[in-house]
Amino acid sequence: MVVKTDYLQSIHLIERLHRQFLEVVKNELDRHGYQDVNNIQSVILYNIGEDELTVGELTNRGYYLGSNVSYNVRKMVENGYLIQERSTHDRRSIRVRLSDRGLALRKIVDSMFDRHAERIGDDTVPVEDLKKANTILLRLERFWSGGMGFGISRL
Q1: What is the reported pTM?
Q2: Which of 74, 46, 48, 75 lies closest to 59 in space, CA to CA?
Q3: 122-153 residue pLDDT tens
Q4: Is residue 155 part of a domain?
Q5: CATH number for the domain that contains residue 54
């Protein structure tokens, strides 16, 4: 049986790791002189990649991190990282895709991820441990979303 303190420690670690990850991204942006885009926005840009999505799809696919997707999309459009266009099929729907400037920033973030992936190994985080951690985190995600039949939805 899981002890409540272990469960709470896991939640705390997930939250702390997420904040540390965003700080790493912020440092990378600073290193490259980006001051008009924040770490959350740059991760959103990375996740959009070559796709063209609606704001709703950003949220549904889990590409969005934060409390106000509309604000972040508007700022990225204003600063030239995203191109925003009305859908030709549904005039109410707005689609976004990366501009050349957004693609350039995405390459920087991708290079950072490449560097990190190269450094992960037996002396830091063995690949098998990382895979096991991912499996556990996916199980927690399913638990919280109610996908395992006993998650939050039954509380």
Answers
A1: 0.84
A2: 48
A3: 889 999 999 999 999 999 989 998 865 555 55
A4: no
A5: 1.10.10.10
